[in-house]
Structures are given as C-alpha cells and as structure tokens.
Design brief:
binds pyridoxal-5'-phosphate; four-stranded antiparallel sheet; alpha/beta; 454 residues; Aspartate Aminotransferase, domain 2
C-alpha cells in the first residue's frame, strides 16, 4: 500500500456511531499510514528529528508506568531503584554534553523548562526581554495577548529585543539603548531570554550577557532548537559566553525523545529543582527520561560528526535554493550557521500555500512568520516565509549532494509549477536509499518501521 499526501490531507474524521472496535482499529490504521508516509517523504520540519531504535525501545519500557517524584535518592515513592540509576546517568550525560555543573532532566518539554526558569527567577508582574515571534521568538516567550506562556501562564510583561532583519539577529546597540530606557522608566526586566525558533545565526550572548546581568537580569539561553549543535561543538556555547541557564528541548537537533531540560551552574540548582518539582511536574514521564539518557549517550559518541554534517547540509541547501531562484533569508551572513534555512516565498505565493503544495509532493515544511510580516498585515496562516530544518534528513544519512536534490525538487514544485504527483515520485526515489537512522550505536530497525506489539 502506498501512503501519500492524499491519504494525509483528505483523511476522514472518525464517524460518529462507529463501534469501539472500529475506532480502535482506525487508530492503528492511521498510525501505520503515517509511518508509511514518513518513510517516503522529506521531513524538513526544523523542530523535528527521528530517534534511533534504541531510543524507541526505552520509550516502551515499564518506566513509563511509574512515578518517581522528587530527586534521585530522595523519592516520594518506593520502587525507584533502577529509575534512580538511569536518572543519575542521564543527568551526568547532560552535564557532560553541555559542560554544565547542574542539569535537571525532568522537564517534560521545552516549554516546561522555560516555565521553570520563569518561576525560579521572576514573579508575575515582572518584565522579560525576549525576541518577538517574527524575529524568531517562541510562543513560550510570548505576551499574554498572544496567549504566550510567559504572559498568560506566569504573568510576565514581555519587551522585545530590537532586531536587524538584514543580519537576521538581535541588534546589540539597540538592545542596550532599550534597556537603559526601561531602567529610567518602569525598571529593568528580571529575565533576558536569548535563543529562538527561527534561529539562523548565533545570538550575541557574549556581547550582551554581561550588560544584561549588570542590569539585574537573569540571562537564560533557550537552546530548544540548537541544543544538538551546541552539544556537538557547532553554533555557540552559551554557558561559556555568559548565560546563567540553558533551557532545551531534547528532540529538535538532539536525538529525541520529545522532552526538555534545564542546565546551569550550581548557584541556580536549588531554584530550578523546586520549580520543576513540585512546581511543574508530578510524573516527569520516566520512560522519556530513560530515552533521553540513551539519546545523550548517542550524542556524546556521535554528536560532533552529526552536528558538523547538519550545519554543512543547511548551508548547502540554502545555497542550492538561492541558486534555484528562491529568496533565502540571511544572505549577508551566508544564509545560515544552524540547522535551519528560512525562505521568503512572497514572489511565488505565500508561506501557507507553499507549505500545502509541498506537502502534496511529500516535502514536509512549515510556514513561518518572517520580519516585516506583521507590519504588512500578514498573519500566521499566510505568512511570508517557510522554514526548513535538515536535522532529520541528516540523521538519515543525507549529505550535500542530497541537499542539492532537495532544492531541485522544491524548485520544481514551487517555482516550476510541476505536478506535485511527479515531484512526489522524485522524493520517493531520493528517500529509497535513506531508510536507517545513522549516528547511533544500534540502527538495525528501519527509521520509520511500524512496530506491532499486539
Ligand atoms: C520548540 C521550542 C520550545 C518548546 O519546546 P517543546 O519541547 O516543544 O515544549 C521552546 N523554545 C523554543 C525557542 C522553541 O523553538
């Protein structure tokens, strides 16, 4: 059976009045089709990756049915002997990857990790300095009126960094000026958030951390996207450049599973631990914690080679897209130094339409707000850009030659107006040779193999 975009897009919602048995079977049928579809697609969502079979094995272990509230050795329940063993190993691996004195691997996601930092180092009503969304910020940094976590959940007022759209980076002088102005008025913010979701170039941590800390701010670097590049020695090293804490997701450029963590120095450990438990978790999804330990071991062994290839692939994809006629952002800085590529697609249509057209060709990307969109009245359904990430295709073993093929397929679909079904055949042919997860100890099971336990 050939899974296709048509199967994904046109899927019928479950009919009311179905028997429980039919609903049950329907769930497994959809899961199976999804696996088939991703096995013959180009997954280019920048926040996603594919885990190794080893990570998947840890995820189905009995750890997922247990509670281990508290800290290893100080648990609230019995039965945690082996859980403690794994969690101690997990935190040690995390500290080693990021050269941090302290790691809390319990946050169940990047958003929860950020919320732990907000809770530990600020109070509702305080202000936070963060990138706006078109400037790369994440909704967890966002304002109350946008239902952002910082504003809506923790009651922070969010002030945005001035942003330079040519450099696609935070404006250092503008930021200093803005902070001086805030100090004269309402007072300096309590937290400064660096890092983001649309994240092409290292943020000016070295240039700003000292100034922000002298102004009374806790400086957190949100490495949700780039944690795997940091661990692999590419991109930047925020804890050495002056950030107090580093929050991360464990599944974007890192090797999965979905989850979060907070890293930092000993001085911040107690505040973070209390915020994570009992503040923000009861169960910390122990199977995910075990899978994080497995992924961190893989990153310690293979992460440097992987990160080098990711960054090289992103640059190659950006250059090839530009040569094919796309307007790739960040040209002044060489397009990208991360796993991401951002493309302004307004010359062709808009980000929403391009996303949908590419999906029909089995090329999975996301539409993206880019600088200038809000001023022009464009919103998140039909923004000006798309964002691409090469972490997953790199994990599948693709190199620069394949990046040029991806750019060519995208050019055929978006600029050439070629029938998506024909482009889809090209995508399937390209994917045929890339069915296993690389950069891991045990990669026998195909990457998107559907595992049946029933
Ligand atoms: C994805 C992302 C998050 C949220 O991470 P989850 O693990 O999805 O909760 C936080 N911050 C940034 C900058 C992100 O891009």
């Amino acid at each position: 059976m050939k899974a296709s975009a048509a199967a994904g897009r046109g899927a019928r919602p479950a009919a009311a009045g179905r028997t429980a048995r039919a609903s049950y079977a329907g769930v497994f049928a959809a899961l199976k089709k999804h696996h088939g579809w991703f096995g013959e697609s180009l997954p280019l969502i920048a926040s996603e990756n594919v885990p190794s079979p080893a990570v998947r094995e840890a995820l189905i272990s009995d750890f997922g049915n247990r509670y281990a509230e508290g800290w290893p050795g100080e648990r609230v329940y019995a039965g945690c002997a082996y859980i403690d063993e794994v969690e101690v190993e997990c935190a040690a691996l995390a500290r080693r990857l990021f050269r941090a004195r302290f790691a809390d691997v319990r946050p169940v996601s990047g958003v929860v990790a950020n919320l732990a930092v907000y809770s530990a180092f600020s109070s509702p009503g305080d202000a936070m300095l963060a990138p706006s969304i078109p400037a790369g910020g994440h909704i967890s940094h966002g304002r109350r009126e946008h239902a952002g976590t910082a504003g809506l959940v923790h009651g922070l007022d969010v002030e945005f960094y001035p942003f330079d759209p040519e450099a696609m980076n935070i404006d250092v002088d503008g930021t200093k000026k803005k902070v001086r102005g805030l100090k004269r008025g309402r007072g300096a913010p309590k937290i400064a958030m660096l890092g983001g979701s649309l994240f092409l170039f290292p943020h000016p941590v070295k240039e700003l951390a000292g100034f922000l800390k002298d102004s009374g701010m806790h400086v957190n670097y949100d490495g949700a996207h780039v944690a795997g590049l940091i661990a692999g020695g590419q991109f930047q090293d925020p804890l050495r450049e002056g950030a107090d804490t580093l929050t991360a997701s464990t599944h974007k450029t890192l090797f999965g599973p979905q989850g979060g963590m907070v890293l930092g120095g000993k001085a911040h450990a107690e505040g973070i631990k209390r915020a994570v438990f009992p503040g923000l978790t009861s169960s910390h999804h122990i199977h995910h914690m075990a899978a994080k330990a497995v992924a961190f071991a893989e990153a310690a062994e293979f992460g440097a080679a992987y990160a080098r290839q990711v960054v090289g692939n992103a640059r190659a994809l950006a250059e090839a897209l530009s040569a094919a006629g796309f307007r790739v952002l960040g040209e002044a800085g060489g397009f990208t130094r991360s796993h991401q590529v951002a493309v302004d697609v307004l010359a062709h249509s808009d980000g929403g339409r391009v996303e949908a057209d590419l999906e029909k060709a089995n090329i999975i990307v996301n539409r993206q707000l880019i600088p200038g969109d809000i001023r022009a009245g464009r919103h998140y359904m039909h923004p000006g850009g798309i964002r691409l990430g090469v972490a997953e295709v790199t994990r599948l073993g693709m190199k620069k030659g394949e990046m040029r093929e991806i750019a060519s397929l995208m050019g055929q679909a978006v600029i050439g107006g070629r029938d998506p079904a024909r482009v889809r055949s090209g995508v399937r042919a390209l994917r045929k040779g890339f069915q296993k997860v690389r950069y891991c100890f045990d990669g026998r099971l195909p990457a998107y193999e559907y595992v049946r336990l029933r």
